[in-house]
Structure formats: structure tokens, C-alpha cells
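// run 5 | inverse folding | seed 20
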């Protein structure tokens, strides 16, 4: 057992608990899994190499962090925030680069170790971006971590880590956009993601996946703890809290709030154009996979059957996905965990 700069004890998963993960998450669990206690956040072992570096990551006053639990609308918000800050007139050539190259995923290096992923070729755009941004740096010290460090100001950076594992001065120094989404849609979306991406390669059932979710046994661990850490700080001036469902139903109003928070001073016309540019259909139509073919890191049969990363982009797609028993289970779990929160999630557009 080791301890981290954030004050967590790192506890390796063992025995049946690890074997269960290895059986179902065949893309990553064989790398070893660890929990960060207190909190029971769950990561693959390679995260331990980055945990302290991330906790001590030097934040800047011009930084904006997009922080979410997985599948809450991160990519959508990354594109909105980057576009508002860097491409207000939709004429910045950098916009052609994939969003994770412009808004790097701080802890993504832990996910690149899967044996199901081919090591990226030197002509891979991500590696080329790394060589350009980080000349002379060693990729084994973290491609995405070092790109996050080297990103020119103003930096926008993505993370799925809870606030307690991110730099403690982040909310004093920089701005954080936190996106939350109702848990019934989140688990449907994460199930798809985990089957789609080879780095996860989930091979179990949807019922078991929901069980993993309610047991806090999915990658990143407790959904409620993540949400609570941000919700409790929602009144702080450098934290902006957004619900996916509001962004969907009242996009322009939410962009106006972001405009004030980010101090981007965009006009209503600019915001209208950005709203359209970042809509689900527009982002899906731009979702080209440069360099590598999709099959290098996605399961093509899942794409053909259930769609790619841009799957549905709606509120309420969970309907019809749960058996009555499973729905009772998740509803009870939500009810229990929402006590004292003061959040009313929207589960449909009606
Ligand atoms: P679904 O699987 O329900 O379709 P994240 O970026 O956090 O991984 O979240 C991905 C989810 O956000 C997916 O949900 C994806 O389709 C949805 N999404 C991505 N871009 C979107 C957009 N522009 N508008 C609405 N939803 C979007």
C-alpha cells in the first residue's frame, strides 16, 4: 500500500474482485486495478504513475478545466468551451484537429497501455502533435500529460478525475466547468462506450454493467462522490455547474451563462453560430478519424450495430433499456444517494 500527494492510500484489487474485472473489462483490467481510499475511486494501475504529477500539475489563471464523470457530455463541453475561447468566428484552422488534441485529456495516458491497442505509429497525428508540442520529451512520461503541460495559453484541459484528485489550488486559480448528467442515461452511454473502445473491451451483460455502476466498480469509481465534490462547491466563483439535460433543452441560455463565466464577451449572433456548430449532428458529421482507422481502437461490429462515439446524444435514451427489476434497482439507488443533495435530474425531454 502506498500513499499519494493527495493523501489517498492506493490499494490494489485482489482475488475475486480483480478476477471479475479481468473477466468483463478485457481491455484494461489485466493491467492491474487500484482503489484510491478514502473514496474508493477505481483506476487501472498505470494511473498511479501519474496521480502525484496530476495533483501537483501547475495550474494557471488562464486555464479552464472541463471536469465530468465519464459520459456526462465532456466532449460536447470541450468543443463548446474551446470554440468560445479560440474560435469565436469559426475560422480558426486549428479546429480541424480532433478535440482531444486541442483540449487534452489530462489522465488519458493510463488508458493507452491496453494490450488490445497497437502502439501508435510515429505518423499517428497524436504522436506528431506530441513531437511538435513536446520536442525531446519521452512519451513514456505521458503523451497527454505532457501535452497538457505544453499547451499554449489559454489552455482548456479535460479530466474525469474527482476534484479531490486534481490540484488543490485549481478552483482558486483557474476556472472549472463541471458537467453532470442523469445517471440512467450515463450508465447506458458508458455501457456503449465500454463495449465500443478496445481499451475497455467490456464483454459482460448490460445488467452486470448496471451492477458495476451501483457498486462503484466502474472505472473512476463512485459517480455520487464525484458529483458531490463539485456540487458542494457550486457557489464558488471559479466553478460553473452545467447539466447535460439543460444544455440540450436550453442550449442558447446555457451558452450565455458560459459566456459570462468564461468572460468571452461573444455576441448573441456568435453564440447562435457556436450553438449550431457544436450541435450533435454537426459534431457527429465532423467526427473523422484521422490517421488510424477506427478499427485500431474501436470494435467495428459495435459501431455497425449500435453506433460510434456520437451515438444518440439525447435525454431519456435509457427508456426501454432496463428490465423492470433493474429499473427498480437503479431507481432505489438513485433515491438513496440523492437524499440531501437538492438535485432534480431530468430523465426525459417532456
Ligand atoms: P450518448 O451515448 O447517450 O449518445 P462524453 O463526451 O462525456 O464521453 O459523453 C458522450 C455522450 O455525449 C454520448 O451520449 C454522446 O453522444 C453525447 N454527445 C456528444 N456530443 C454531443 C452533442 N454535441 N450534443 C449532445 N450530446 C452529445
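// decoded
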Amino acid at each position: 500500500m502506498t500513499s499519494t500527494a493527495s493523501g489517498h492510500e492506493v490499494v490494489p484489487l485482489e482475488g475475486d474482485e480483480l478476477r471479475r474485472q479481468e473477466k468483463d473489462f478485457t481491455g484494461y483490467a489485466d493491467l492491474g486495478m487500484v482503489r484510491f481510499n478514502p473514496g474508493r475511486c477505481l483506476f487501472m494501475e498505470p494511473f498511479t504513475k501519474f496521480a502525484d504529477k496530476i495533483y501537483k500539475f501547475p495550474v494557471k489563471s488562464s486555464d479552464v478545466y472541463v471536469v465530468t464523470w465519464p459520459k456526462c457530455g465532456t466532449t460536447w463541453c470541450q468543443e463548446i468551451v474551446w470554440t468560445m475561447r479560440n474560435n469565436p468566428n469559426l475560422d480558426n484552422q486549428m479546429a480541424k484537429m480532433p478535440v482531444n488534441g486541442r483540449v487534452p485529456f489530462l489522465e488519458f495516458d493510463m488508458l493507452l497501455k491496453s494490450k488490445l491497442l497497437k502502439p501508435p505509429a510515429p505518423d499517428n497525428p497524436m504522436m506528431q502533435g506530441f513531437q511538435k508540442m513536446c520536442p525531446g520529451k519521452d512519451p513514456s512520461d505521458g503523451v497527454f500529460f505532457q501535452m497538457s503541460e505544453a499547451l499554449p495559453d489559454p489552455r482548456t484541459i479535460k479530466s474525469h478525475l474527482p476534484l479531490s484528485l486534481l490540484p488543490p489550488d485549481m478552483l482558486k486559480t483557474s476556472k472549472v466547468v463541471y458537467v453532470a448528467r442523469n445517471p440512467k442515461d450515463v450508465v447506458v452511454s458508458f455501457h456503449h462506450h465500454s463495449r465500443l473502445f478496445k481499451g475497455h473491451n467490456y464483454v459482460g451483460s448490460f445488467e452486470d454493467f448496471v451492477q458495476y455502476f451501483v457498486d462503484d466498480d466502474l472505472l473512476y469509481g463512485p459517480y455520487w462522490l464525484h458529483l458531490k465534490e463539485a456540487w458542494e462547491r457550486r457557489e464558488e466563483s471559479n466553478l460553473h455547474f452545467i447539466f447535460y439535460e439543460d444544455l440540450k433543452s436550453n442550449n442558447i441560455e446555457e451558452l450565455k451563462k458560459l459566456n459570462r463565466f468564461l468572460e468571452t464577451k461573444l455576441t448573441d449572433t456568435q453564440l447562435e453560430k457556436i450553438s449550431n456548430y457544436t450541435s450533435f449532428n454537426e459534431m457527429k458529421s465532423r467526427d473523422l478519424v484521422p490517421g488510424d482507422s477506427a478499427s485500431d481502437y474501436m470494435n467495428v461490429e459495435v459501431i455497425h450495430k449500435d453506433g460510434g462515439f456520437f451515438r444518440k446524444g439525447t435525454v431519456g435514451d435509457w427508456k426501454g433499456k432496463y428490465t423492470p427489476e433493474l429499473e427498480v434497482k437503479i431507481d432505489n439507488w438513485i433515491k438513496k444517494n440523492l437524499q440531501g443533495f437538492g438535485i432534480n435530474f431530468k430523465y426525459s425531454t417532456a
